[in-house]
Specification:
- The protein is α/β, with parallel strands linked by helices.
- The chain has two domains: about 130 residues, Rossmann fold, CATH 3.40.50.300; about 60 residues, no CATH class.
- The chain is about 35% helix and about 25% strand.
- The chain has a six-stranded mixed β-sheet with strand order 4-5-6-3-7-8, with helices on both faces. A two-stranded antiparallel ribbon has the order 1-2.
- The radius of gyration is 18 Å and the shape is globular.
- The relative contact order is 0.19.
């Protein structure tokens, strides 16, 4: 008997999505296996964020997420914002203790995350005082600290310079079994994922392994 492919970790079958009477996605069928690193690419408004959200909803209780709006608490420090990635793992009393007096064990664990994201010197700076790129790296740090097997990122390096973008993406792919990213930078998508899903006007028009693609193969996604 032939072995069947394993059940996909994430799957959509002929899914569409509509907002305010407009079609955001139309007839999307997509399967993603555990262990894949997938980039969703296409023009602004092509439906990348909507598709990412539909996929994330299937793993929301387990996966880590960096949304476009970041979801930081600006009045709290980088430490506290990153520590929030593990609030679900501890009791209320321990979490309150770390809010008032961060424990050395947790500080060192968060410090290791900030070191990989070039944020160590900002560990106890308020998130609201950071630059846009530093805030984005803090949101990535929170997701990394969660320790999930699956990572979703909606343009997670859009405010970070190219050199730091590569460091951040490396940290993401090194720490997660499965990665799904909405990305506008085609070069980074090709460098850090193994599969490209291309969207145009809400439709899936390309789904190929990264190894088979060059940046020029994606040009049609960005032509009106």
């Amino acid at each position: 008997m032939l072995n069947k492919d394993p059940a996909p970790l994430l799957a959509l079958e002929n899914r569409s999505a509509h907002y305010n009477g407009l079609t955001a996605l139309s007839g999307i069928t997509l399967r993603i296996q555990a262990g894949e690193r997938v980039a969703l690419v296409g023009q602004s408004g092509a439906g990348k964020s909507t598709l990412l959200r539909l996929l994330y909803e299937q793993q929301a209780d387990e996966a880590a997420l960096v949304p476009q709006d970041l979801g930081l608490v600006n009045a709290l420090s980088v430490f506290h914002n990153i520590y929030m990635g593990r609030l679900h793992k501890y009791g209320t009393a321990y979490n309150l203790l770390n809010l008032i007096r961060p424990q050395r064990k947790e500080v060192e664990a968060v410090r290791a995350i900030t070191r990989s994201l070039d944020l160590e010197e900002k560990l106890f700076a308020r998130a609201g005082e950071l630059s846009g790129g530093q805030q984005q790296r803090t949101a990535v740090g929170r997701a990394l600290f969660k320790g999930a097997a699956v990572f979703f990122g909606d343009e997670p390096v859009s405010s970070v310079d190219e050199h730091q973008s590569r460091d951040v993406l490396k940290a993401i792919v090194d720490r997660h079994e499965t990665v799904v990213l909405s990305m506008h930078d085609v070069g980074l998508a090709l460098a850090f994922t193994d599969r490209i899903v291309g969207l145009k006007s809400g439709r899936l028009v390309l789904d190929r392994p990264t190894r088979d693609l060059a940046a020029s193969d994606l040009d049609d996604l960005y032509r009106d």
